[in-house]
Amino acid sequence: MCGIAIETDGERILGVRADRDDPLSRGHLCVKAHALQDVHADPDRLRRPLRRTASGFEEISWREAFELAADGLTRVRRAHGRDAVAVYLGNPITHNLGAMVSLVPLLAALRTRSRFSATSVDQLPRMLVSLLLYGHQLLIPIPDIDNTDFFLIIGANPVASNGSIMTAPGIPRRIRAIQERGGQVVVVDPRRTETAAIASEHHFIRPGTDALLLLAVLHVIFEEALTRPDRLARFTDGIEDIGRLARPFSPDRVAARTGLEARVIRDLARSFALAPRAVAYGRVGISTQEFGTLATWLADVLNVVTGNLDRPGGALFATPAADVVAFTRWIRQSGSFASYRSRVRGLPEFGGELPAGVLAEEIETEGAGQIRALVTVAANPALSTPNGRRLEAALDRLEHFVAVDFYLNETTRHADLILPPTFGVEQDQYDLAYHLLAVRNTAKFAPPLFARSVDARHDWEILLELAVRYMADSTVLERIAAPVVRRVMTKLGPRGVLDLMLRAGPHRLSVGRLLRAPHGVDLGALQPTLPKRLSGKRILLAPTEFGADIGRLEKMLERPVAPAGIFQLIGRRQLRSNNSWMHNFERLTSGADRCTLLMHPDDASARGLTGGQRVRVTSRVGSVMVPLEISDAIMPGVVSLPHGWGHDRPGVRLRVATAHAGVSANDLTDESLVDALAGTASFSGVPVSVDLGAEADRATRMN
Ligand SMILES: Nc1nc2c(c(=O)[nH]1)N[C@H]1C(S)=C(S)[C@@H](COP(=O)(O)OP(=O)(O)OC[C@H]3O[C@@H](n4cnc5c(=O)[nH]c(N)nc54)[C@H](O)[C@@H]3O)O[C@H]1N2
Ligand SMILES: Nc1nc2c(c(=O)[nH]1)N[C@H]1C(S)=C(S)[C@@H](COP(=O)(O)OP(=O)(O)OC[C@H]3O[C@@H](n4cnc5c(=O)[nH]c(N)nc54)[C@H](O)[C@@H]3O)O[C@H]1N2
Ligand SMILES: [Mo]
To answer: Is 184 helix (H, G, I), strand (E, B) or coil?
Structure first.
């Protein structure tokens, strides 16, 4: 979403620089954008389809690859039914216009309940809260960071992440501007992050206890009669229910468990409620945890009861030029929840998907509906889902595994076929997803910088081909529809679909208009849009599903934080990293080893551990050896390991990444730990022990 200018010489990229005239990023750029040139030129990036053979992977033609891919999938469907064919959609799809557009035919063709995506290891609670409160899973309130006076950040590190579900390039500048207007930025995080370092205040919190904190904040607001929902009261149901639900959670009662003093909680509640314009914003830290749905919900509730939803300086809904909310409403995909459950563990469906944490068991467990074939698209679940090692073992049991990906990596090494798409600069660019999540309404389209070679395929071409071939072997209706879908989609292409969406959208734009404005078009600040955009024209603030889950939360107050000697593991994102896949370039990996375990000095000295030592971290599911980094930026009792590393698996073709391998945090995270309400993975607060490994074992034996 950052505007860039790329200097080229023929097919070579000479440099990438920031576009000062981009209305959203205004000259901001992070180092990952410079690395686009590295991805483009990477000799390890796959250019031709690969097929697994007894002696390793061999290159084959596209024609053969498509035939084998489709044959394998239809064979499994014919023998075992539709749900035996699973699909896993990874994060980069959301950045890829073509892949986004061709998901519609692909998912329609597959019609499988065995659908998975990064959603359930990320923002599922955010979407579920939007579905139940506002009536659509994509009606997501965005913090109006540029106009607020009080910015409460819970479980997000936008200085490293560039803002997530709050696309806001140049976060440090925007945070400074809040402070210069006399406003406050408060960060609540078990680590004093890069964001906390520039905030006005930072408070440590025990992992997984944010819902308790937010209930206590609401308790104070109701007790001191600080609620003032203003115009929201006219179309919001359930405000009084919140007062009742929050009553048992006084600051004194939650202080010890959350790690925040009661006085601090009271002050926070008052400053938030009394600020002229305030916004509570939570991301991955409050999403992927045991009470992720409750915490995400309560942050919205806080905005509503203080009148800060749908008003400038609070949280607002974007009105993107290509309105994916209206489009998905039109194709009847506003969202769904718990309309069926996973076969083995009974976790709920959300939006037609099952939680990623059940994929391995659904492959391993025999019976009707067992997964026997898999298509992954832009996904590396071996490194990105809990207990990745178990999933890797399960992948080898599949009868057929097709990976749409341009690297031979930790996940795709298990595939029967790898279909490599073109990379970003060879494709049309428009951010269908991220304009919806941005802090300002803008629109920007970029045509491909380089034409794709005749022997390359775009993601959308690959997905469409798979969809059409799958349909051609299916019901009579689908057999008839297949050539029509192929013709229409090929003729329109992603650009044609986008053009239709832009023309139908609220700003009446078109691709032609955007081509004439290469820096992007500024469509203005976010504006109030409620109650008009609410599906039922009302906000249902206290859904029974959420209220009922508070009993589970209350039990947490009786549980000890962690057994003696056990740490709570959390993750951390790093500026020069992008989940699991941008580690194959010196630009992003040079310098000191970044895959380290952070530990507080008091904890280290209590165990006689010193910085730089390699320590063994062990959870229920596995164990890794990793260098120790001692820092008082991490809360005592908590340790932190970044995710996305662990590239030294055999068969991986990533020369640079393998030399900076690190270990995978998801060799430790536990697929049995989920938010019981929604099934989202709970990455935050995984119980682990830390010792010196073999040396510790020797000492134990001697005793
Ligand atoms: N450079 C870079 N940018 C990225 C990415 C990347 O990998 N690298 N990934 C992108 C993606 S896919 C996403 S989803 C976004 C994520 O964007 P963010 O959510 O902003 O990023 P994280 O660093 O995961 O921030 C989560 C924070 O929650 C804290 N935390 C952990 N557990 C708890 C808890 O129980 N309570 C509270 N209050 N805090 C907790 C962590 O210490 C961490 O600081 O970033 C995107 N941007
Ligand atoms: N422990 C822990 N685990 C986490 C997280 C965490 O904070 N802690 N964060 C979670 C979050 S928020 C997310 S979003 C997930 C991300 O996890 P995934 O969705 O699995 O995504 P990535 O790790 O980014 O892997 C992306 C894959 O897509 C390929 N790829 C890149 N671009 C393209 C493209 O344009 N087309 C195609 N076809 N392929 C492409 C890459 O080669 C790589 O194999 O990880 C989650 N896992
Ligand atoms: Mo994510």
So the answer is: strand
Give, for ligand 1, the residue of 29, 89, 164 to mutate: max count of ligand atoms closer than 8 Å to Cβ.
164
Residues 354 and 264 in one domain: no
Q: Is 131 part of any domain?
A: no
Nearest CA to ligand 1 atom 30: 285
* Nearest ligand, measured from the Cα of 663: 2
- Residue closest via CA to ligand 1's atom 13 equals 164
Instruction: Mark whether 337 and 305 lie in a shared domain.
Output: no
Residue 103: φ, ψ to 5°:
-65, -35
Whether residues 301 and 332 fall in one domain: no
Domain count, the chain: 3
Q: Is the CB of 208 under 6 A from ligand 1?
A: yes
- Does residue 581 lie within any of the structural domains? yes
Supply the range of the domain harboring residue 406: 64-121+323-522
What is the structure's pLDDT at 653?
Answer: 98
Instruction: State whether the beta carbon of 684 lies less than 6 angstroms from ligand 1.
Output: yes
Choose one of 271, 298, 316: the last residue of a domain. 316
Minimum-distance ligand 2 atom for the alpha carbon of 644: 23
206: its two tokens: 């025990």
Q: 394-441 pLDDT, tens per residue?
A: 999 999 999 999 999 999 999 999 999 999 999 999 999 999 999 999
Ligand 2 centroid to Cα of residue 379, in Å, is: 5
Write a three-state SS string for 505-550.
CCCCCCHHHHHCCCCCEEEEECCCCCCCCCCCCCEECCCHHHHHHH
